[in-house]
Design goal:
Two copies of one chain form a homodimer. Chain A is mostly helical and 218 residues long. Chain A contains nine helices and no strands. The first copy, chain A, has two domains: 48 residues, Homeodomain-like (Arc Repressor Mutant, subunit A, Orthogonal Bundle), CATH 1.10.10.60; 139 residues, Tetracycline Repressor, domain 2, CATH 1.10.357.10. At the A-B interface, helix 8 and helix 9 of A face helix 8 and helix 9 of B. The structure holds a DNA duplex (30 and 30 nucleotides).
DNA sequence: GAGTTATTCGAACGTTCGTTAGAATTTATT
DNA sequence: AATAAATTCTAACGAACGTTCGAATAACTC
């Protein structure tokens, strides 16, 4: 009787041994989240209406609320899932790689690959950054901070290892800017794929940070 | 009798010789635009209501419409003014400077100085990029393209002059990313001023683009 | 196939939205 | 002071918003 959207749903069947990872409910919710990502991406969170999502997903307006309790929670679910996934992938890829420069290249490649493969979700993540309030917002903010700190760690390591001189915070945020801005311009029919872009952005950024010779005149 | 907001208002008194640059109307409109910039910056264009602006500006809801015909035109006016100003300043500053690297440094400094001095306006420009439709949108888009092309010109010149190898489009958009992303993180109590940031971002970017030695391994 | 639970729906709720009509008021001109 | 013009207001319009209620349907259990 109670709506499942009020509490976190269990994602495994109750009895009958074998745990099936995705219940019907979870699959349906995931589908809705993917439609919602598209809609939020196109019209922005505030600009998109629940009726837009209803139209896009083919489900009635009221029917949607069986799966989540509010539009805000919908955005939260999208952002949390996206961030969690990208952080998890990054950690897996970094495992076993020691070289400082290579680790930064992996960071860039992971970010851009995921960004371009899930452009809509990443745009929603980048663009709708400040709209979540209170509890929702702080949880996503914590994920973001963790991701940010990983990058700071990578750069600080390189900096110490090679006695470089740059402001870590500025370097990290510049790198994020380079990468995240991509959602405003990337056109798959014109621009290269993630690997190429990652390589060239990595070149520019790493040379810029490493190159000993000052590029300034006098 | 006719509302002045439907046509572009003349900004000079009609008779009595001396042209006074700012009429009462223009001053009032400018004031409203500045309040609107603040409100759009805080809550986003879609998230901000005309009632928010009414509250912020101290003018009645209907009173606002004496100065512009729609919320969309309000955003258009803000974006157009901001872009026009930053392009004009840039052109003035580039005048007489020949050195290719110095010209790019001027571009970066001009951008960041204006960005940090008018953070709200620039956030509205960066963040509310795709919301203007049809006529409004295309005019602002043309301004943006001009600004973009200037930067392409600067980088292409440097590239030819020094026989460098990079994708101009990617380099320009990376630079814009580095600079524009600043609206998501800059905190005047923590971060340096525009000149310092421009210098360090310029260092990273120019070294990255100029440095002959590949930073890649193997 | 009856009974129970899970899912979906049409219809509406109350609120807020952008915008406007028309009256009231202030300001400028004689 | 009288007149005209410019500016601002109160009050409302219809539309769209996020959300909810309770009934209707579908899926599953026995």
């Amino acid at each position: 009787m109670a709506s499942p959207s009020t509490t976190t749903r269990v994602s495994r069947r109750k009895h009958r041994g074998v745990p099936i990872p995705a219940t019907r409910y979870d699959q349906r919710l995931a589908k809705i989240l993917s439609y919602a990502t598209e809609v939020f991406c196109d019209k922005g969170y505030e600009g998109a209406s629940m009726r837009d999502l209803s139209r896009a997903s083919g489900m009635s307006l009221a029917g949607l609320y069986y799966y989540f309790e509010s539009k805000e929670r919908l955005l939260y679910l999208i952002q949390k899932h996206t961030f969690t996934t990208i952080v998890a992938r990054l950690k897996a890829r970094l495992e076993g790689v020691d070289n400082g420069e290579e680790r930064i290249r992996i960071f860039i490649l992971n970010h851009l690959e995921y960004f371009l493969a899930n452009q809509a979700a990443m745009k929603v993540l980048s663009h709708e950054d400040e709209v979540l309030k209170n509890g929702f917002g702080s949880e996503v903010a914590a994920l973001k901070r963790e991701y940010y700190r990983i990058c700071v760690g990578l750069l600080d390591h390189l900096k110490r290892q090679r006695s470089l001189q740059f402001t870590t915070r500025l370097a990290v945020l510049s790198l994020f800017g380079m990468m995240n801005w991509i959602y405003t311009w990337h056109n798959p029919r014109v621009d290269a794929d993630a690997a190429s872009i990652a390589r060239e952005m990595g070149d520019v950024f790493l040379r810029g940070v490493i190159c000993g010779a000052k590029a300034r005149k006098s």
